[in-house]
Specification:
Elements (H helix, E strand, L loop, with lengths): L12 E2 L1 E6 L4 H5 L6 E4 L4 E4 L7 E4 L2 E3 L5 H17 L3 E8 L5 H5 L8 H15 L5 E13 L2 E4 L7 E2 L2 E3 L3 E3 L6 E3 L2 H14 L2 E2 L7 E2 L2 E12 L4 E11 L6 H4 L4 H24 L11 H5 L9 E8 L6 H14 L3 E2 L11 H24 L18 H39 L1 E2 L4 H4 L4 H37 L6 H61 L2 H9 L1 E3 L4 E3 L26 H4 L37 H16 L3 H16 L3 H5 L1
Parallel strand pairs: 2-6, 2-18, 7-17, 7-18
Antiparallel strand pairs: 1-19, 3-4, 4-5, 8-9, 8-13, 8-16, 8-20, 9-10, 11-12, 14-15, 16-17, 21-22
Bound molecules: adenosine-5'-triphosphate.
Adenosine-5'-triphosphate (ATP) binds next to helix 3 and strand 15.
Length: about 675
């Protein structure tokens, strides 16, 4: 995402929305879930059976059922958009939907059914090779970034370095430091995509074996220079595979997965808010709320032609999520973008390269011209007779000059070769046709014609869908308008019918409202559960901080503020907060180890230094029972009394063990808080 020039004049163009429904998965079949989604491809409509009330019907630019392959979606919807990118427009295709509904399947695909991203690569290169001529030069580069836990990571750099989004809402956001790889073929681009995918965060959840845990954006930049017009067009194509929204109870997420899910849902909820604000023409669009919406700013309501692919699953089990996806997708249809052709932007790399090549060529010419200029004639040898003493010296100096001149020439040659090498490497990055024939080898003409035909068919199909939708709508309205009433009774009947229709619509809307409230409540409950989990984690950290951060530094830690622009925690100036600035590094409180408040309390002094939590040793549970005197009996014979006295004396001599031990046991049980205490006491 490089900084792009703002559009000057632009025609509004709505975001195109496509729905794709995947087949029931094996797991869903095994568990016996019903299908509740019916797709009407010829009408671009999706119908969802509502177990509680009336069915829901949504219409889109196109709708595909589980029998449709990615090739069809590409030809009918994406191909025209990629053609626009080649013409200098910005384009964006993004897949949206619940986890496990086929976003990655649609964007990246499988070895049997390639996804939209590799298809777009092949389409781009087929066009470039087809239009190759000495008058047209192309430069194609790509970048790949992911948004993982609100960090933007460069998937094409070795160590996946973290990147910063710069810019402002007004002029657009951009990522200045991301790696940009120059490509010379579709295979190069596929290689870059695979290299990036190896770094991408993925994991297993109960809903998807290979769930993407990050939002990924593959950016392709195509620069085209025409020699005749001396203009450069720059088209940018964003191919976005979003992570899926998920419910914790369904995915069974815990620990790290839960943390990822919370960030994914947070970013998607910001995206939903941006879509809603744009659809309602709200004066404020909250792009700043998340990094995802900043990255997608141009694609939603900006300078771009955009296609949203909403992926859904057919199972009844996912009814709520399917309806939510379809509602967002329906809302996105109202978003108006302002695409303009990017002509001669300041940051065009192609112009930079061309200027550099020109400069190097001029340098070589200069050097060659200098080489051809007549060299200073070597000094004529003085006749030996005139200066017999200097003759040997002169010969040495002439030879020396000769060697010097030769080495200079050699150096010059090396430099010229170096420059030529540099020009070659720069030219290698650019794709230029040498008459067109060589490059056309890769692509036979029939294939091009076939693709054009496919595009025409797709265009016709699209028009058919639009017409069908219009006919449906008009049929409904004309039935009402053209009705002439012969009698008053007829008019009453008709109006009653209309009233009934209105009432049923009203009931539908009410039902929708109730459903939305329920969905909202469910979401709130999930947020609350998540908040509780996060609070618990925070408390634990605070406790550790209490123990390890010295008193003097604590006030400064609390003053730290997160700066979105710098993407870092910063300490605001001390004068605003009234906290004394730290002049020296604070020391721990002097003990061998840091301590918590609890440890400063009644804990035994011997253990204070290591007492972060309450680490008082827990006494062992009692091992002896309390002595209960036997009930009084009738007096015994004298011998028995004597024996008993001896036993008693022996007990007293041992220190009254039976009485002393129960006391210890009572303390232990009191600390342990067990029910046994009552018995002991
Ligand atoms: N149209 C389809 N036809 C056949 N199988 C599909 C289709 N769409 C998705 N699948 C299968 O469904 C499973 C989940 O798909 P995928 O990983 O693309 O979902 P996802 O939406 O990207 O999920 P997540 O958001 O968790 O990354 C995969 O096994 C995939 O092969």
């Amino acid at each position: 995402m490089e900084k792009s020039a703002r559009p000057r004049t632009a025609l509004n163009e709505c975001v195109k929305v496509v729905v794709r429904c995947r087949p029931l998965s094996q797991k869903e079949k095994n568990e016996g879930y019903e299908e509740v989604v019916k797709v009407w491809p010829e009408r671009g409509a999706v119908q969802v059976y509502n177990p509680k009330g009336e069915d829901k019907l949504f219409t889109y630019d196109a709708a595909y059922d589980c029998t449709a392959d990615t090739q069809t979606i590409y030809d009918e919807m994406v191909r025209p958009l990629v053609a626009s990118v080649l013409d200098g427009f910005n384009g964006c295709v993004f897949a949206y939907g619940q986890t496990g509904t086929g976003k990655t399947h649609t964007m990246e695909g499988t070895p049997d059914d390639e996804g939209i991203i590799p298809r777009a690569f092949r389409h781009l290169w087929a066009h470039i090779e087809n239009t190759a001529s000495p008058d047209v030069t192309h430069l194609v580069s790509c970048s790949y970034v992911e948004l993982y836990l609100e960090d933007v990571r460069d998937l094409l750099s070795k160590d996946c370095k973290k990147l910063t989004i710069r810019g402002q809402e007004l002029n657009g956001f951009y990522i200045p430091e991301m790696t940009s790889v120059v490509c010379r073929s579709a295979a190069d681009m596929v290689r870059a995509m695979r290299a990036g995918n190896r770094h991408r965060a993925a994991g297993r959840t109960d809903m998807n074996e290979h769930s993407s845990r990050s939002h990924a954006v593959f950016l392709v930049t195509v620069e085209t220079a025409h020699r005749a017009t001396k203009r450069i067009r720059v088209g940018k194509l964003n191919l976005v595979d979003l992570a899926g929204s998920e419910r914790q109870r369904k995915t069974g997420a815990s620990a790290d997965r839960l943390r990822e899910a919370s960030r994914i849902n947070q970013a998607l909820s910001s995206l939903g808010n941006v879509i809603s604000a744009l659809a309602e023409n709200s004066p404020h669009v909250p792009y700043r709320d998340s990094k995802l919406t900043r990255i997608l700013q141009d694609s939603l309501g900006g300078n771009s032609k955009t296609i949203m692919i909403a992926n859904i699953g057919p199972a009844a089990y996912n009814y709520d999520e399917t309806i939510t996806t379809l509602r967002y997708a329906h809302r996105a249809k109202a978003i108006k973008n302002k695409p303009v052709r990017n002509e001669d932007p300041k940051d065009a790399k192609l112009r930079e390269y061309q200027a550099e090549i020109e400069r190097l060529r001029a340098l070589i010419e200069e050097r060659r011209a200098a080489d051809k200029r007549p060299k200073k004639a070597p000094r004529p040898k003085q006749p030996q007779t005139q200066q017999p003493d200097n003759s040997e010296e002169d010969t040495v100096s002439i030879e020396h000059e000769h060697i010097l001149a030769e080495s200079t020439i050699e150096q010059e040659k090396c430099k010229t070769e170096e420059l030529e090498q540099l020009i070659k490497s720069l030219e290698d990055r650019l794709v230029q046709g040498g008459g067109g024939k060589d490059l056309l080898n890769n692509l036979n003409e029939t294939q091009i014609i076939l693709e054009q035909r496919n595009m025409e068919i797709a265009e016709r199909k699209k028009r058919e869908v639009e017409m069908q939708q219009k006919i449906d709508l008009e049929e409904e309205t004309t039935a009402i308008v053209t009705n002439t009433f012969a009698t008053l009774q007829q008019e009453v009947d008709h109006k009653t019918q209309r009233l009934k229709k209105c009432l049923s619509k009203y009931a539908c809307l009410r039902e929708e409202m109730v459903e939305q409230r329920e969905a909202h409540d469910a979401e709130r409950r999930e947020h609350e559960a998540l908040q509780a989990a996060l609070l618990a984690a925070l408390r634990r950290r605070l406790l550790v901080a209490d123990g390890f951060v010295p008193e003097a530094g604590r006030a400064h830690v609390l003053r730290l503020r997160y700066n979105d622009d710098a993407d870092a925690w910063q300490l605001p100036p001390a004068r605003h907060s009234g906290v004394e600035p730290l002049t020296e590094r604070p020391l721990a409180s002097g003990a061998r180890r840091p301590m918590c408040t609890l440890a400063l309390g009644p804990a035994p002094a011997r253990r204070r230094a290591e007492n972060l939590l309450d680490l008082q040793p827990l006494p062992l549970p009692a091992t002896a029972r309390r002595y209960t005197p036997p009930p009084p009996r009738a007096p015994r014979p004298q011998v028995a009394v004597a024996v008993a006295d001896t036993v008693k004396k022996e007990e007293v001599r041992r220190g009254g063990g039976a009485r002393a031990r129960p006391a210890t046991a009572a303390t232990a049980h009191t600390r342990l808080g067990t029910a046994a205490t009552a018995g002991v006491r």
